[in-house]
Write a structure and sequence with these properties.
The chain is mainly α and 224 residues long. Helix content is 72%, strand content 0%. The chain contains 11 helices and no strands. The longest helix is centred in the last third of the chain and has 32 residues. The protein is globular. The mean pLDDT is 88.
C-alpha cells in the first residue's frame, strides 16, 4: 500500500466517523422513545461504519468503530452517574461503549465471500448479513452490561467492587430487564441498519467493491 493510498484511507475513515457521529447527533432530535440509562435509536447511525468496513476492510472498520465508541462514551459520561463501584465503571465503559460500538467495525466480515464470487446478489447479501450480525453483537455487549452492572435496577444490589460480585449479581430478573431494555432500542436499530445496508448495496455497488478486488469489480460492472 502506497503512502498516498494510506492518506486517502485515513481521510475516508475520518469522514465516515464524522458522518456517523453526525447521524447519532441528529437522531437525538427525533422523538424516539426515551431510554433513561443510555441507548437509543438512530437514523442509520451504524450504517457508515459498516459500509466502511465492507469497502476498506476490517483494518479500517474496527479502529474507526472503536473511535466512535470512545466518542459516544465521552458524550455519555452522564450515564456513569447511574452506577457505582470501580468494576461497574469498567464494565459500562467496555460493554456499553468501546466493545459495543467497536463490533460495528466487523460489518465487512463477509467481503471475502463476495470477492470469490463477484456476484451482485452476493454483494447485497453479505453486506446486509454483516450489518445484521454486527448489530446483534452490539446487542450482546449491551445485554452483558445489563445483566451485571445494570441489574441493580432489578434487585437494588448497589455497585460492584470486584468481578465475583458482578457475576453473582446476575439473576432471572436482570436477564429479563436487560433483554427488554436493550432489545427495545436495538431491534428497531437493527432493522434500520439492515434497510440502510440494503439500500447502499443496491444503489452504489461499485463504490462498495472498489477496494476489494479488480476481478470482482469487473464482474459487478458487467452484470449491471
Amino acid at each position: 500500500m502506497s503512502k498516498k493510498t494510506t492518506v486517502y484511507e485515513m481521510a475516508e475513515c475520518a469522514v465516515i466517523l464524522a458522518l456517523s457521529i453526525a447521524l447519532f447527533a441528529v437522531s437525538e432530535f427525533i422523538p424516539w422513545p426515551a431510554w433513561l440509562q443510555g441507548g437509543g435509536i438512530t437514523l442509520f447511525g451504524q450504517v457508515p461504519i459498516i459500509v466502511l468496513s465492507y469497502r476498506r476492510g476490517l483494518k479500517a472498520g474496527v479502529p474507526t468503530a472503536l473511535l466512535l465508541g470512545v466518542f459516544e462514551m465521552i458524550t455519555g459520561l452522564a450515564n456513569f452517574a447511574w452506577v457505582k463501584g470501580a468494576v461497574s465503571y469498567v464494565v459500562v465503559a467496555l460493554f456499553d461503549y468501546i466493545f459495543a460500538f467497536g463490533v460495528l467495525g466487523l460489518g465487512g466480515m463477509f467481503r471475502g465471500i463476495y470477492a470469490k464470487s463477484g456476484q451482485k446478489s452476493v454483494l447485497t447479501a453479505t453486506l446486509v448479513l454483516g450489518g445484521l450480525i454486527s448489530s446483534a453483537l452490539r446487542f450482546v455487549c449491551h445485554f452483558l452490561s445489563g445483566i451485571t452492572v445494570w441489574s441493580e435496577y432489578t434487585q437494588g444490589n448497589g455497585g460492584f467492587t470486584n468481578l465475583d460480585s458482578v457475576i453473582h449479581g446476575i439473576t432471572k430478573g436482570s436477564v429479563i430487564y436487560s433483554i427488554t431494555y436493550n432489545g427495545g432500542y436495538m431491534l428497531p436499530e437493527t432493522i434500520i441498519t439492515v434497510i440502510g445496508c440494503l439500500a447502499i448495496a443496491l444503489v452504489i455497488p461499485k463504490e462498495l467493491t472498489k477496494y476489494i478486488s479488480k476481478k470482482s469489480k469487473e464482474k459487478v460492472e458487467k452484470a449491471e
